[in-house]
Amino acid sequence: MRIKENYQGRKVLVIGLARSGLAVANLLTIQGARVTVTDEKSKRELINNIKKLKKGIKILLGRQDSVRLKNLVSEYDLLVISPGVPQENPLVEKARKLKIPVVSEIEAAFNIASSNLHWETLSSPPVVAVTGTNGKTTTCELIAAVLRSNGRRKVIVAGNIGTPLSGVVGRMRERTVLVLEISSFQLENVESFHPYVAVILNITPDHMDRHRTMGKYIQAKANILKKQTEEDFCILNGDDKRCKILEGKAKSQVIFFSSKRALRKGVFVEGKRIVSNLDSRAKVPSDRGELLVKHVRVPGPHNLENALVAIAIGDIFSISRSKIRRAIEAFSGIEHRLEIVREIDGRRFINDSKATNVDACKRALETFPAPIILIMGGYDKGAPYRPLANLVREKVAALILLGQAASRIERELIGSVAIYRVDGMREGVELSYSLSQPGSSILLSPACSSFDMYSDFEERGKDFKRWVKEI
Fold it and tell me: Among the three residues 73, 100, 127, which one is the final residue of a domain in this structure?
């Protein structure tokens, strides 16, 4: 573990005043740092978060202040950047030239938690960190359900899941287990971040508008392994070739999971059974109650994979098989992720607004039977849509497009299915219903981010549900 970090009296510049920036600015202030926050947005756009800042925090907003601040970067001891801030940000580039440390919000919060809770005295901190292109949120909540089933330790879920780590540090106690959803953006600037269990669910093209190449995207994901030791665990997808390659970067004990084949060591599906065969160094519980595929209630083969990860972590934490099974059976999924909204006249409406990339949309299409009326589109993240063509041709009766990416999606999928263009969600929902028939699944699975029309995927999903309920 790292030595204690002391922020008392240090001048810190926090870049970005969304949820993560707000939380880390307040946390650093509590630790005695002299904090300045900056954002290119205006005071009017950020007024709600500004009101939540602690007294004494200096605020510089708008492009004009950002340009002026570039000449003042040398005055700061540390830059903490929010996940949405790219590496090419002028303030970040200037700080690096001046050799001023630049860290992510997750790194700063982890260091403070480590200091407050004396994690430096432990071989490994009680942290489970989950990354991957898809399935992170569902897997984190499922892991938390399994860990809570033991009833012995407090479990907190945070990170990219909606509540920043900086926002929960004050609620943590010595026996708290932290389950963190970690994005590639958050992993770009970590040095000391050290999870006891690191999970990489899958790696498929995403955020190419930010990372530019798959190599850089994979390296960002691999940073989750950087500080692990042989006392720790790394859980990797044995069916994902990009994940399997990362075994070579791991200094920790590697556990694979697979829904497609038996493994010599790991967690896998064998017929109707789920088998957990971990390395002898893991404390596998003596209660060997049987786990079956049918115990996983959330739909889709990808959710079976998520359950395999939760089972592996349950075994690592010595939770009995019967408790693991009850936790998995009771888990019914999360809002905006393959969420069944309602059924009308034999037509099922499904909210999968969290499907912000092509692979997530593909997984949704694999989950439900034809005929599907698919609503896609949003802000284009740069990945190709052509890989969906065969599945769209096979299962989709009509494709409804909206948002900034609509033209590009149409160019890449033209000829696969009948395509319709709409201006907004209300028109898309109404058209989808008119094009459907009894037995149809009407699926919102955008394959794009939401920022061209909405503040986030949650607002987009709620808008979809609002208009579905109006039918």
Answer: 100
Contact at 8 Å (CB) between 359 and 133? yes
pLDDT per position as a tens digit, 248-277:
999 999 999 999 999 988 999 999 999 988
273, two tokens: 């059974």
Which residues are CB-contacts of 9 (< 8 A; sequence separation ≥ 6)? 32, 33, 34
Helix axis angle for 19-30 and 43-50, nearest 10°, is 50
Q: For the domain that residue 447 is a member of, what is the CATH number?
A: 3.90.190.20
Residue 2 in any domain: the answer is no
Q: What is the mean pLDDT of residues 340-346?
A: 95
The predicted model scores a pTM of 0.82
Q: Which domain holds residue 362?
A: 339-470
CB 32 within 8 A of CB 26: no
Amino acid at 153: R
pLDDT tens digits for 154-187?
999 999 888 999 999 999 998 899 999 999 999 9
Return the CATH number at 208: 3.40.1190.10
Q: 389 with 454, same domain?
A: yes
- Give 36's strand partners: 13, 58
Three-class SS of residue 19?
A: helix
Give yes or no: residues 90 and 129 share one domain: no
Cβ proximity of 57 and 37 under 8 Å = yes
Same domain, yes or no: 316 and 355: no
The answer to whether residues 376 and 447 touch, using CB atoms and an 8 Å cutoff, is yes
How many residues in total does the chain contain? 471
Count CA atoms closer than 13 A to 250's CA, side-chain side: 25
150 lies in some domain: yes
Looking at residue 279, what is its pLDDT? 53
Tokens, residue 378:
């949003």
Paired strand residues for 348: 343, 441
Same domain, 189 and 278: yes
